[in-house]
Amino acid sequence: MLTTVLSNYSGFLVSLGYFILVLGILVFVHELGHFLFAKKLGVGVITFSLGFGPKLIGRKIGETQYQISAVPLGGYVKLIGEERGEEVKEEDRARSFSFQPIWKRTLIICAGPFFNMFLTLIIFCFSFLLFGVPQEPLPLPSKIGGLSSGLPAEKAGLKNGDVIISIDNTSITTWNDLSSIIRKSEGKELSIKVKRNGEIIEFKISPEISKEKTAPGEKTAYVIGIVAPYEEMTFRYKRVGPLEAVYEGGLQTWHLTKLMVFVLGKMISGEISPKTIGGPIQIAQEAGRQGKKGFPYLLSLIAILGINLGLINLFPIPILDGGHLLFLVMEAILGRPISIKKMEIAQQIGLILIILLMIFAFHNDLRRIFFPGGYGF
Q1: pTM listed for this prediction
Q2: What gap in Å lies between CA 345 and CA 347, rounded to an integer?
Q3: What is the domain-level CATH number for residue 210?
């Protein structure tokens, strides 16, 4: 009992460490984009902070306070004259964000999201050069990675981590072996042997018909309600030279960006369930899993999250970078800035939307922990 508790606690600390590392890199790169472009375009920077809330440690260099704050769920760069109506000294007007032409403000705002996307490109190029380009995935083991609530496998007593070694006396070594037999079972009872903690246990399970959505429409399949151990997926790698690494890195970044745009579009249209949205807990769990698998897998996770963070920040929601861009577009069309009162109202609405989205993401994370399950075989 004590060993299990200590093991779980140790695993939690490892996942938390990887989560802070991954999020810290993403936030640092994002804010670095805003910071560097502001400096380059002559705008003064008051604060560069990793995290929100009270300052933990920091140092002032020149006019800028560099600090790490208590809440590690983001960061910010505070510019001179960033807020409309903010009192700015006469000598600082030329270096004030609000007094810059629209094109300069646009570049500074866009720099954060695009630095995240550029990070993804750099990671892929570096990873492909160092470790090779991933080819087809290696076969998944016949291990149960999850159970769907209320389906035959859970009712029969199968558990996460069980390794299926045979079905109806047919030896099983990969996930494809067992999924093929279950799908072709036509619902007849199957004798399934699993290895659990060194012990062989036999179960009698009858698959049930389940509907699954595919691109052409909907089809039925026989399932028992087990989910593949996707966290154990690994790939074969092909060694490449520098030029091919850059080419493959650019190609992979482009494909990933298109995929993320497609998925986000499907979520907005309702074609993909909002239950798939994950929050900090899921990111921490995934960071822990990928970190344990090795450096290349952790790099891939950072690359994927970099594209996600960049695209989401471009959403036209006030308080996000995309919301600030929307205000600039409206300013360019109207020929004058949006009134301070209207901007404040819009930002309050945006803040409420972001808070509600975070609450929903936390709810999904907790639901996955306490009520695990999903579509499987």
Answers
A1: 0.76
A2: 5
A3: 2.30.42.10
